[in-house]
Write a structure and sequence with these properties.
Layout: H1 6-63, H2 71-86, H3 101-109, E1 113-116, E2 119-122
Antiparallel strand pairs: 1-2
Length: 129
């Protein structure tokens, strides 16, 4: 016996929602499968990149020079500054040595040298080497 009236409407709604639920479940399944594959590929890619990074760092560390901020490099820079300061007189102005013009600016900025006329003179400020 066919359904009529409100029961027929409820039957149609039930079929419609069952089909919609089936489509939603299929979409969820596709989403889960896709992301499982992506997670697996991402994990594999991460492992390869990590291995390449370890190989790169181990190869470059063996030949790398000490960095700019190491105590050894700092001592070398301070010694070079002390040698440069020793070439200036406190009374007679002198030009910066050729090729060392840029090295004079920090010494002026920190008060070890002073501009006088066409050259630079040494100030009484002590420089610790």
């Amino acid at each position: 016996m066919p359904l009529t009236g409100p029961l027929r409407t409820l039957e149609r709604l039930a079929v419609f929602h069952e089909n919609t639920a089936r489509v939603i479940r299929a979409a969820i399944q596709l989403y889960v499968e896709h992301h499982q594959r992506v997670r697996h590929d991402t994990a594999r890619l991460d492992a390869v990149l990590h291995a390449l990074n370890l190989a790169r760092t181990s190869a470059t560390r063996a030949t790398a020079q000490p960095g700019y901020g190491t105590p050894q490099r700092e001592r070398e820079r301070r010694h070079a500054s002390a040698v440069l300061l020793a070439s200036f007189d406190p009374v007679v102005p002198r030009d910066a040595p050729a090729g060392r013009e840029r090295a004079v600016a920090p010494l002026i900025r920190h008060g070890y040298l002073r501009k006088k006329g066409e050259g630079y003179v040494r100030t009484p400020k002590p420089f610790r080497d």
